[in-house]
Write a structure and sequence with these properties.
2 copies of one chain form a homodimer.
Chain A: E1 2-6, H1 14-25, E2 30-35, H2 48-60, H3 66-82, H4 88-104, H5 108-133, E3 138-140, H6 143-146, H7 162-168, E4 176-180, E5 183-185, E6 191-193, H8 199-210, E7 214-219, E8 240-242, H9 243-251, H10 263-268, E9 272-276, E10 285-288, E11 300-313, H11 323-333, E12 347-353, H12 361-373, E13 377-390, H13 400-410, E14 417-420, E15 426-432, H14 436-447
Parallel strand pairs in A: 1-2, 1-7, 2-4, 3-4, 7-9, 8-10
Antiparallel strand pairs in A: 5-6, 9-10, 11-12, 11-13, 13-15, 14-15
Helix pairs in contact in A: 2-3, 2-5, 3-4, 4-5, 7-8, 11-12, 13-14
Function (chains A, B): Catalyzes the phosphorylation of the beta-carboxyl group of aspartic acid with ATP to yield 4-phospho-L-aspartate, which is involved in the branched biosynthetic pathway leading to the biosynthesis of amino acids threonine, isoleucine and methionine.
Organism (chains A, B): Anoxybacillus ayderensis
GO molecular function (chains A, B): aspartate kinase activity; ATP binding
């Protein structure tokens, strides 16, 4: 039995609802369905979630909000009208939104979370309604009813372990169960949302909880590409990827997947299939625990900009036990996370997302490094990009690094940093941000 | 004015003493001379320092030590006889040794340090004696008299900052001043030796203290080679190196220099010249603050075996602020120093000298990693070698990494790890220990 999750663009309007209904009902194994809020219908459209955030803002600022509320209901109205559904559901939706506003108008964080969550919640009700009208047994199941319990961190919920036991009981229910993505309930009964993109997380949690044979993630591309298609035109499509590869890729600039979403299925070894709602016949990309990587040791190339490097040097640094640990402690005290720490005998670099040094933080961090670590020199190198070459077969393949570095040399790109560990599935290269596209295209040429 | 330091092989016997005297007296600027203990005269000879350690052991174990004492004095006797020096100096040496034994026989650490130091001390007296006999004004100056004060850590002395002020006063003295290497005096008046190879340290401290224009380090090779001559036959000789390059190279397997010896001269920007006592006409290798590296971005290739890598992986590791810091804290608690920490998104490797995990340490470290960090996997990869490609010009040169990795591929050597930081003068490669010579030879081919 399968869990099928449909992203925002898959449920953006009536035509998409019809495609989704066809997909769900064409395979009896698709018993659990997770839906997002309506996404964009055309390029410059506003996503439902953004409308809802705007609505929450108006309410919080005590502004006239009715205009935005009308826009929200109008999006559902369009779907209801186009699908010729009974219009009672619109009253249910309107009443529900008004009730959230009345209940939480003086609790800004709660209001924001509740309104954001309503995008998925109402869409799930609509989908169940539609399937029933088509003659199928379909039930809306709220996350509370399903048993998705989370930590009480508005906008950043983490699933609580007891949820999985609760979710397993959904197997006893009949019909197609439609569950809204993106949120759960705290132990005290509040709606709390996952980080953005969190419908992927809900799908993954449900798949883990019910013990699905497959977690299908329906989106609007035929498959995952081996490189960002905005850098390389028509790049090759990936048939199969491992969890580890997917995670490395999605972390460094691949936007198909919210990069933490896979944890629940990864832990249980449930395979994931990324498919296209608009072309469900395409095989999609399978994400699995292991793959035969002899033919294609490299799975993909990811890249992201916005990094900087703090470079410190101190004569005889390597004789100072604890130097690296103390440098990392200073960053930790400031709540800064880092990506890599390449080091020489007497120097060490820490690569991190540049935005973390905003405002006063940079001055404080540098001050502490100079004063507490008594370094000879400290400097910050800005505008760096990281490029990750990812593949399970890399660690056992002679010549992978040679191909990559030759590509950089041919593209006349200077490599600022290289980082490759012993048991790793990726090789990291740091380059200047303005050289990243050139470098990625050169890497694509040699590997694909 | 120059400081000239002569290593053990340069002062091993009378013939070498003559060469050294010629070198010293051929340049009036050579006012300060630091000498080692007599080194090996032939391949299987015993160094004076090892004889003295054997002597100390006999005394400490209450064994008959007179036989070894005779051997020690016999080494000096040979030099005295061959140089036709007055034999009174031998009485001075014998009496001095006996006095040390009598004073320290029940303080094993002090006895060991005092006897070890006597090798250099008596040789300095001998050299001054010889120069005077040749008609030059030459004075033996003990480290106490010179003002070399050190921390009271037997066998591991660190120079105290006040020494430099004291040493500066030596400029006021007349004649050639002969100072024994390898030891200083603690504030309470005890002889304390530097780490082994510490005559280089004495020379460097003296050069810094007297503000020398040049620190000449006389040894038994014409110059520093760009790669270990036991791996590559007749490798190219280096005319010029920077301190940073020298330090990276000497750290990873280059034995010309004790790798911390350069700090005092480095701090004051005093250039170092490594020269050959047996061929003083050869220009030697200059170690300087900066060099023009456009022609030769890579200075040398060093390698060393005996490393291992602790590899840990944990899903979502990079979201855990403080993970890396806590892993390093565990190692620090065990007094373990590490070389590099290449990392991926969900894994981190720590490369360290294998010997540090001896006995119970490995079990304790692994236990703590599993229990405190809750990792998914931890393993130790053994028998690794590190290869450092070192050069000031590397960070600004496109294609350096490409050449290196292509060399590895051609030699069919798998690269286990790569580490190159942003402002670094070296690129580190980790390979299996049994592949290191093959890899170094391949690198030599591409760079030299």
């Amino acid at each position: 039995m399968k869990v099928a999750k449909f992203g925002g663009s898959s449920v953006a309007n009536a035509a998409q609802f019809q495609k989704v209904a066809n997909i769900i009902t064409s395979d009896e194994a698709r018993k659990f369905v997770v839906v997002s809020a309506p996404g964009k219908r055309f390029k410059d459209d506003t996503k439902m979630t953004d409308l809802l955030i705007a609505l929450a803002k108006k309410v919080i600022e005590n502004n006239i909000y009715e205009g935005v509320l009308v826009q929200v209901v109008a999006r559902y109205d369009e779907i209801v009208t186009d699908l010729q559904l009974s219009r009672d559901i619109l009253d249910v939706i309107s009443a529900h939104l008004q009730q959230l506003i009345d209940t939480y108008h003086d609790q800004p964080e709660r209001l924001l979370d509740a309104l954001k969550a309503s995008g998925e919640d109402n869409n799930a009700k609509l989908m169940a309604h539609y399937l029933r009208q088509l003659g199928y047994e379909a039930h809306y199941v709220s996350p509370k009813d399903a048993g998705i319990f989370v930590t009480d961190e508005p906008g950043n919920a983490q699933v609580l372990p007891e949820s999985y036991e609760q979710l397993a009981k959904l197997n006893e229910r009949s019909g197609i169960l439609i569950i809204p993505g993106f949120f759960g309930y705290s132990r005290s009964g509040h709606i709390v949302t996952f980080p953005r993109g969190g419908s992927d997380i809900t799908g993954s949690i449900v798949a883990a909880g019910v013990g699905a044979e497959l977690y299908e993630n329906f989106t609007d591309v035929d498959s995952i590409y081996c490189v960002n298609p905005s850098i390389v035109e028509h790049p090759c499509q990936l048939k199969e990827l491992t969890y580890r590869e997917m995670r490395e890729l999605s972390y460094a600039g691949f936007s198909v997947f919210h990069d933490e979403a896979l944890e629940p299925v990864y832990r249980r070894g449930i395979p994931v299939c990324v498919k296209n709602t608009n072309n469900p016949e395409a095989p999609g990309t399978m994400i699995v625990a292991t793959r035969d990587h002899r033919e294609r040791p490299v799975a993909g190339i990811a890249s992201d900009t916005g990094f900087c490097s703090i470079n410190v040097s101190k004569y005889l640094m390597n004789r100072e036990i604890g130097f690296g640990r103390r440098l990392l402690q200073i960053l930790e005290d400031e709540g800064i996370s880092y990506e890599h720490t390449p080091s020489g005998i007497d120097n060490m670099s820490v690569i991190l997302r540049e935005e973390q040094l905003a405002g006063d933080v940079e001055r404080r961090v540098l001050h502490r490094i100079v004063n507490e670590l008594r370094v000879d020199e400290v400097s910050i190198e800005r505008d760096l990009a990281l490029i990750m070459v990812v593949g399970e077969g890399m660690e056992r393949s002679v010549g992978i690094a040679a191909k990559a570095t030759a590509a950089f040399a041919r593209a006349n790109v200077n490599i600022e940093m290289i980082n490759q560990g012993s048991s790793e599935v990726s090789m990291m290269f740091g380059v200047k941000a303005d050289a990243v596209e050139k470098a990625v295209r050169a890497l694509y040429e040699v590997y694909f």
